[in-house]
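Supplementary notes for students who missed Thursday's class. We covered one full example, reproduced here. Read the sequence, then the structure, then the short commentary at the end.
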Amino acid sequence: MPHKQATTGKVTTRNQKLVSPAENQDECATCDAILVTRSQISQIGSDEEMKKDAKDALEQALQVEELHVGEVRGEPFVGNRRGLGLAGLPARIDAQDKKIALLNDETISRRTKIALLNDEATSRRTKIALLNDEATSHGTKIALLNDEATSHRTKIASLEDRVGSLTSSHEAYKLLRNRFISTFKRDKGLVKATEADRRIIAEGNGWVHGGDVVVDAQLYEGVGGRKDIAAFKKLYAVSPADVQTIRYQPTIDALNTHAGIIASKHKIGTDEFYARFSGFIRLLEEFGYDDGYLGGNATDVTRAYWSFLNCIKDEVKRVNAIEASD
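Structure (token representation):
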């Protein structure tokens, strides 16, 4: 197989003649001469034969091929076409090596920056995780404080209810004691009863014979409380325990109205009256004793409430009965 052979030498700029380095020692201006050709190898494996074949090929190329002058990186070169293609090859290789070295340095620098950025990102993620944990902790504390505040509000509301109940009970008790004295004046005649006495007696009768679901529910509290819960539910249609969740005054008034009529000796409700009250209670329970059904848009509870209230004038009748004496 033919091989490409190359030879170099120095040529003077005056005669462009190919000379040896020894002949060129006295010359002040030189250039590189490159001759490249392909040679036939007559005997593979014999170095001497290969050298001889290469020398013959180079001599033939020097005699046959035209030489040209070229300049690479400011340096003049003389050679055939193939030879000039290799001119400046070491310099080009060196330049590429330098570029590769610079790229390697730049790659290392970028990898270092990426590592630093990764470290910074990890640090920031750690800080974010700590902030999230802190926020969660604060959220838990806020939730606990809200629960505590809700508990305090519930206790305050309960205390306010008890104060209201005690105040109501106190006023009711005063009314009953007034009724006792006025009834004594009216019935015994030892002291003449006045119009004010008759008014006090009427008010006292209304209190005694009317309902008071809040106060009556307290009669079932404690160890010594009443046990006849069925009687309470017959009067108010709810249990004493349910009353603790009822704070809406229209609901309380409706329960008291029902109790006052069902317990009265002077009034009697029709089946329609009790049916409408039962419908109101059923819806009230379904809606969890809603405490705002008279505000905003009307609901089924709203309509049931007004249906019950509006039927009282037609579905509750007065009956004649002799007032029982005390």
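Commentary. Confidence is low (pLDDT under 50) at residues 10-20, 322-326. Residues 188 and 260 are 29 Å apart (CA to CA). If anything here is unclear, bring it to office hours.
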